[in-house]
Structure formats: structure tokens, C-alpha cells
Amino acid sequence: MMRAMKNKNIGLYIHIPFRNEEVNYLQTNSYYGMNLYEKEYFDNLHKEMKIRNIQNYNIDSVYIGGGDPSCIYSDFITSLLNSMKLEKNSEITIEINPYCELSKIKNYIDCGVNRFSIKVFPFKNEKWDILIKNILEMIEYINNKGVYNINLDIYFAYKNQITELNFLKLVDIPHLSFYSLNDGYLNDIEEEELSVIQNFIKKMDYIHYEINHYCKKGYESKHNYKYWNLDEYIGIGLGASSFIKGVLYKNELEFEKYFDKINLEEIPCYEKDLLDGEKLEKTYIILKMGTKEGIDTKEYKEKFNIDFELKYAETLKKFISNMIIEKHLDNYRFTDKGMYLSNEFFIDVL
């Protein structure tokens, strides 16, 4: 059993593995047609929270992701949130689909949700107009309820998709995230598309503060920065990860295995990985280089007792000459171009 730490703020991730879409477009740990497990699953989430002594942690950010948390009864979500003791001014985010019922959104807000992340998939047909209409109505409803911290997760997959993003000029959305539906390297079309999107977004005064994320000033994701800064966090539910005292824990991926360990009052993880030495250093580089600040060489030296510029001299020279990396004061960071070619740098470092 993990020992709770007093007086240290951590983040909490809650994984909801259910979805209404038959095709798992995002390749997430989620399941279609498994609604019969919903009640049992949430009963076990409550049990896992007790096993992990969640009530003894100072939680200042909660992220409810999936899957699709909004495809299930909102009472399941609200019962979880109402059972928690959170720090004042905590950031509480839930992912929702663009067709989420407004009654569910009201229930989420009533129990403390103050940030919404809406998934936006690309369509090359008439569905797009319907989708955007729903999203605009949803944003207006959320704003009228006094919540303004909204993110759009936008997935791109084909050329000239930028024409479909003109709706962003019609509404004030403080946070945007862009992802490819294809894993791994970007193909030529995706690189070109992202470059166009990047220029479009910059004209709207967004800050490109992480590889996939843009925001208006003051709307950076508090929860995501816990991952990027290697701060401690706990994940509950199927496949969720936790990072506590230098150890990365990964939960069971299957319902039955997860339920079995919970019933034994065990933390339901199948893998523990101690991040220390070079493994911790490489993880730090990958996470920090993804942010707009990049690697602070003084902070890096203090943390690992390694001269970053000396150890990676050849790599830095190569990627600076390719205009993928730049030096700013004591920091090395990706250029705008480099933000979307980061895999090349990471492979070189690893």
C-alpha cells in the first residue's frame, strides 16, 4: 500500500474506459459495448481510492479521461468527485464528447468541474457543420454556467482541414490541443497541415506552450504540467499510471484482473518501474523538451550533476543547424518547426 504524503500537492487522474464509438480511433485503453461493467467498475474505483489513501493526499488537480467519461451516467462521475477532499482552487477537468447532454454538463459543474476538454474529430462531409453547431452551443452553455476554462482536442487527418477551423474565430476558447490520428512520425501532408494550423493559431494570440498544446495567457493546464515537470501524481482505474517517490506504477489493463486485485485490497498495478539514474535523466529530457521552456541547463546540472551542453554537444549542434532546436539564455528548446519534428531529436538522445 502506498504511504500518503502530507503537505505535498499532487494530481489525480481517473480513467473511464468506456466509449460509445465502435472504432477506437485514438487507440486508447477503452472498450465499446461493455456497459454491464459500469457500476462494478465505479464501485472498484471507490475501493481503489481507499486502498491508496487518497483522502490523505493534498490533491490540487483532477483529470477525468478515457475513453469517454461523458458516455456514462453522470451520477457515477459526481459520486466520485463528491467523495474527495480537494485543495482550494483545484483544477478539475473532464473529457466530454461534442454530443454530451447539457444535463450531464450541469451535473459536472454542480459538483466542482471547472475545466472541460471537448474532443473534435475531423469529418470531410456534412457531419462537420452539425458537430460545430453542437460545440458552439455547448461552449455557450458552459460559459453561461460560469465556467470559461475549455479545451478543444482537435484531431487532424487530411489536407486542407484548416478551412474547417475558421469556427475558432467565432468563439473565445482559451486552450487548444492538436493531435494526429496517426502514431509515430508525421507524414508530409501532416507536417504541411500542422505548419498551416500553427500559423493560423499564432494570429489568434495563443501561446504554443507544449508540443501539442496552445493556450491564452494564464490557461496552461495545471494537471499536465505535473507530468511534464515529473511531479508526483496518482492514477486510478484501468491502465492508469502513478508516479510516486521516483517509481512509475501502471495499473492492470483488463477488467477482471483489475477487479481481482481490488478485491484483495491490493494496489491494482501490474508493473513498477524505478526511474533513477540515466532512465530518470532521459525521461526528464523528453518531458521538459516538450514544453516551451525546454531544458534549463543550470537546473539540469543541479538535478543530475551533468553538463547538458557537453554530454549532448554533437546532438545539439546537429539539430541547431537543422533549425529544430534553438538556445535562449540558459535554455535549449524546440523551434516552432522543431515542435513537430521532436521525435527525431528524442531518438538521437535515447
Automatic annotation (TrEMBL):
Give the UniProt record's GO annotations in the biological process aspect. Answer: porphyrin-containing compound biosynthetic process
Q: Which domain of life is it from?
A: Bacteria
* InterPro entries assigned to the protein according to its UniProt record, in alphabetical order: Coproporphyrinogen-III_oxidase, HemN_C, rSAM_sf
Q: Name one GO cellular component term.
A: cytoplasm
> What GO MF annotations does this protein's record show?
4 iron, 4 sulfur cluster binding
Enumerate the spans annotated as HemN C-terminal domain.
285-341
PANTHER family reported for this sequence: COPROPORPHYRINIGEN III OXIDASE, RADICAL S-ADENOSYL METHIONINE DOMAIN-CONTAINING PROTEIN 1, MITOCHONDRIAL
Q: What is this protein called?
A: HemN C-terminal domain-containing protein
Query: Which species is this UniProt entry from?
Result: Helcococcus ovis
